[in-house]
């Protein structure tokens, strides 16, 4: 029974990571058509990405919007998390639910809603407006991660700083903020990829401007462009590197705070 | 720690303004559009929904697809989570990492890979041809949509099920064994009832997310596989009928919120249940 379950589990994990396994060899194919296994290997589709202006400009737009949305959601979300965790006020639960709602509600509903107001406000094809829309999608990650980290923070350390003469703002900036940095970094990475991956809202409100997902989407309607696997491999590598850095920072911080705080009795 | 009201307001203001202007207000706009025909309030857009055969067919299909994907995710995911709950913590952490790995690849890309794998000239059919078998048409059918959606949603269901299984007090299982229950009895009388709430939570999240799927049905399904999100897109970009798109979007919103309400009720009940259990 146990062995049967184990065999089943291996098959299931295989199914889950199957699409990832095929991606790298497909992207290295020298052929003009998608084939597996590739008959000969080359980096031509990676080169094709960098020599095609429309791919490069889509990547640049994605980075611009992604970085902007990350900064906005990180700043707004962290400030809101402080109030949500430390403040007492009516409607807190409702507000938390509202900040997290964009994660659960069907994106197409929000896409249509934003399209209608953006048309009225003449914000279609406006990069700043697109960035703000992406910040909405990224905000839930920041609020969830930063507030859960803030909830675990031992406030006696901050109180000690206050007792030693630091003002409330100084105590927060010098004591609590450094503790929050790793979770903010993790939240930032998730926020960035939420934006970087966003397709539907962009499709509705960007008015023809192409981010990477929109560029891929527009291609898929007609043909299977072999540049796509190359892009996919680069994007995946990027996210794995980002995750790795985040994990390193988290571990270092954990050690620091573990040695700094005596274990509770 | 006590915070003063003005400081709380100041901290919340940026996020509240953002979410108010670009989330709450637009959503109310869509809902208003669905009970408004341009000149005044009317029920005609809603009547249009119930008179449109296409809309009703697509709504029904959306429901059935979400239900069958959820059922399959639970059937596939529960045993997997059960297996993981019995692993040593270090092994379990590694396996969890493997299961969450696909999250780092964009949904668009994953769907694209299925096209390459399942297509007429795809990997599966080439393999079949090499074995001397006839090719199968999987791409652009509901089967392909199911495969694509399950690959995306299954990790969520597994992790949710696993979380509730790990919460189960191991002593309860041992107690049942020592009182003479067989392994099967321990599973069905103790383990399963205690883990069912996690499975229900996972199933509901899966169902809600399935209702809003867009990319997978559009790329892996045929013309008969489009669901409500695709229909909304068509109404906006092809038919230019925003009013109708707004009605469809409102319908989707109402269904999602109802599911969330149900979810909340289930969760609240569960907290009361566990709370009472701990109290004793």
3D structure, described in words:
The complex is a heterodimer of chains A (265) and B (280). With 265 residues, chain A is mainly α. Chain A is 78% helix and 0% strand. The longest helix of chain A is centred in the first third of the chain and has 34 residues, at 53-86. Chain A is globular, with a radius of gyration of 23 Å. Chain B has helices at residues 5-33, 44-51, 53-85, 89-100, 107-118, 123-130, 142-166, 170-178, 183-211, 215-220, 228-237, 242-279. In chain B, helix 11 runs antiparallel to helix 12. Chain B is globular. The model of chain B is unreliable at 272-280 (pLDDT under 50). At the A-B interface, helix 1, helix 3, helix 4, helix 5 and helix 6 of A face helix 1, helix 3, helix 4, helix 5 and helix 7 of B.
- Number of beta-strand segments of chain A: 0
On the 0 to 100 scale, the average pLDDT of chain B is: 87
Q: Largest beta sheet of chain A, briefly?
A: none
Strand content of chain A: under 5%
Number of helices in the DSSP assignment of chain A: 11
Amino- and carboxy-terminal Cα gap of chain B:
32 Å
Rg of chain B, rounded, reads 23 Å
What is the element string of chain B, with H for helices and E for strands?
HHHHHHHHHHHH
Q: What is the number of helices of chain B?
A: 12
Mean pLDDT, all residues of chain A: 87
Helix content of chain B: over 70%
Interface with most residues = A-B, 77 and 75 residues
């Amino acid at each position: 029974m146990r062995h049967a379950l184990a065999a089943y589990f291996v098959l299931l994990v295989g199914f889950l990571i199957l699409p990832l396994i095929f991606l790298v060899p497909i992207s290295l194919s020298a052929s003009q058509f998608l084939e597996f296994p590739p008959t000969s290997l080359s980096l031509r589709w990676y080169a094709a990405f960098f020599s095609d202006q429309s791919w490069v400009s889509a990547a640049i737009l994605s980075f611009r919007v992604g970085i902007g949305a990350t900064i906005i959601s990180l700043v707004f979300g962290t400030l809101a998390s402080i109030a949500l965790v430390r403040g007492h006020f009516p409607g807190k639960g409702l507000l938390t639910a509202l900040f997290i709602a964009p994660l659960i509600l069907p994106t197409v509903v929000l896409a249509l809603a934003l399209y209608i107001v953006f048309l009225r406000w003449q914000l279609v094809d406006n990069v700043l407006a697109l960035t703000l829309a992406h910040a909405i999608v990224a905000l839930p990650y920041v609020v969830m991660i930063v507030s859960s980290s803030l909830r675990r923070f031992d406030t006696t350390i901050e109180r000690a700083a206050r007792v030693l003469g630091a003002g409330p703002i100084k105590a927060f900036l010098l004591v609590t903020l450094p503790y929050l940095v790793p979770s903010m970094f993790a939240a930032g990475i998730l926020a960035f990829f939420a934006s970087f991956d966003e397709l539907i809202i962009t499709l509705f409100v960007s008015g023809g401007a192409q981010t990477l997902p929109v560029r891929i989407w527009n291609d898929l309607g007609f043909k299977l462009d072999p540049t796509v696997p190359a892009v996919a491999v680069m994007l995946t590598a990027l996210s794995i590197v980002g995750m790795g850095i985040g994990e390193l920072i988290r571990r270092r911080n954990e050690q620091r705070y573990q040695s700094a705080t005596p274990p509770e009795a | 720690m006590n915070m003063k009201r003005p400081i709380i307001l100041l901290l919340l203001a940026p996020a509240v303004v953002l979410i108010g202007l670009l989330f709450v207000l637009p959503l109310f706009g869509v809902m208003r559009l669905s009970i408004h025909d341009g000149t005044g309030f009317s029920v005609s857009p809603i009547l249009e929904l119930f008179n449109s055969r296409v809309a009703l067919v697509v709504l029904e299909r959306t429901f059935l697809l979400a239900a069958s994907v959820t059922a399959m995710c639970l059937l596939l995911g529960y045993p997997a989570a059960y297996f993981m709950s019995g692993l040593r913590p270090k092994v379990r952490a590694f396996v969890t990492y493997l299961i969450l790995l696909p999250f780092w690849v964009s949904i668009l890309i994953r769907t694209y890979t299925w096209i390459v794998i399942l297509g007429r000239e795809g990997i599966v059919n080439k393999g079949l041809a090499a074995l001397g078998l006839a090719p199968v048409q999987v791409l652009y059918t509901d089967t392909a949509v199911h495969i694509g959606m399950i690959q995306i949603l299954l990790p969520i269901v597994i992790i949710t099920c696993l979380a509730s299984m790990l919460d189960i007090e191991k002593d309860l299982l041992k107690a049942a064994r020592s009182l003479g229950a067989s392994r099967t009895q321990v599973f069905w009388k103790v383990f399963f009832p205690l883990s069912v709430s996690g499975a229900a939570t996972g199933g509901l999240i899966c169902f809600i997310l399935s209702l809003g799927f867009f990319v997978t049905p559009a790329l892996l399904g045929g013309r008969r596989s489009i669901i409500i999100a695709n229909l909304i897109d068509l109404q906006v970009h092809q038919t230019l009928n925003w009013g109708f798109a707004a009605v469809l979007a409102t319908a989707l919103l109402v269904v999602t919120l109802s599911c969330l309400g149900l979810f909340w009720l289930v969760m609240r009940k569960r907290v009361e249940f566990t709370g009472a259990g701990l109290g004793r």
